[in-house]
């Protein structure tokens, strides 16, 4: 068995828990999410001879961490719905420990993470489709406003006619 690290990734911080072959905790530490902080995290993991790293796929916060660590480690991206948390108070420290423990016992099946070329292709296609979606939204809003205006006009117009006939 080798050393593993569980990472609990958030918007502003990454909590790391490194466990050795005997499942004993070597290090628990919080890191920032700036590039220099992530480089420091990588250096700490390399210093402790960590081979495998597991992190939860929370939103998009995992992506910068993945990019920094990918060249040096065997990474696994865990779906938080599939990694059930133990009952009790939820803390970053407990989440990172639990991820490392599950990884050591082979209980985590990693999510699909495409290679960098496919990720870039996805980004371009999203950028292309975004303006199209915005145009459709604006057209729908204009149509909605026109529908409301016409409805208001018809109500006013029919009221005038009905009062004039009496």
Summarize the structure.
The chain has 166 residues and is an alpha/beta fold.
Task: Describe the 3D structure.
The protein is of the alpha/beta class. The protein has a domain at 4-113: Ribonuclease H-like superfamily/Ribonuclease H (Nucleotidyltransferase, domain 5, 2-Layer Sandwich), CATH 3.30.420. It is 51% helix and 17% strand. It is built from four helices and five strands. The protein has a five-stranded mixed β-sheet with strand order 3-2-1-4-5. It starts with a strand and ends with a helix.
Low-confidence stretches: none
> Quick one: how many beta strands?
5
The biggest beta sheet is recorded as: 5 strands, mixed
Fraction of residues in helix: 40-55%
CATH level-4 homologous superfamily of the domain at 4-113 = Ribonuclease H-like superfamily/Ribonuclease H
| Secondary structure tally, helices | 4
Side-by-side strand order of the widest sheet? 3-2-1-4-5
Note the overall shape: elongated
Q: What is the architecture of the domain at 4-113 at the second tier of CATH?
A: 2-Layer Sandwich
Write down the secondary-structure element order: EEEHEHEHH
Estimate what percentage of residues fall within beta strands.
Answer: 15-25%
Which descriptors apply to this entry?
5 strands; Nucleotidyltransferase, domain 5; 166 residues; elongated; five-stranded mixed β-sheet; alpha/beta
Helices and strands in order, then pairings?
Layout: E1 4-9, E2 14-19, E3 25-31, H1 35-47, E4 52-56, H2 62-69, E5 74-78, H3 92-104, H4 116-165
Parallel strand pairs: 1-4, 4-5
Antiparallel strand pairs: 1-2, 2-3
Helix pairs in contact: 1-2
């Amino acid at each position: 068995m080798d050393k593993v690290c569980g990472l609990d990734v958030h918007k502003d911080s990454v909590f790391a828990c490194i466990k050795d072959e005997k499942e004993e905790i070597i290090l628990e530490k919080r890191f920032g999410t700036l590039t220099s902080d992530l480089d420091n995290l990588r250096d700490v993991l390399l210093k402790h001879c960590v081979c495998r790293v597991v992190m939860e796929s929370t939103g998009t916060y995992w992506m910068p961490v993945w990019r920094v660590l990918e060249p040096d480690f065997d990474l696994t991206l865990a779906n938080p719905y599939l990694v059930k948390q133990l009952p009790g108070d939820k803390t970053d420290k407990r989440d990172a420990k639990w991820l490392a423990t599950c990884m050591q016992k082979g209980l985590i099946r990693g999510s699909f993470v495409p290679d960098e070329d496919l990720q870039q292709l996805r980004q371009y296609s999203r950028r292309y489709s975004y303006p199209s979606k915005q145009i459709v939204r604006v057209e729908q809003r204009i149509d909605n406003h026109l529908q409301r205006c016409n409805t208001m006009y018809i109500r006013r117009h029919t009221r005038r006619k009905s009062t004039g006939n009496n």
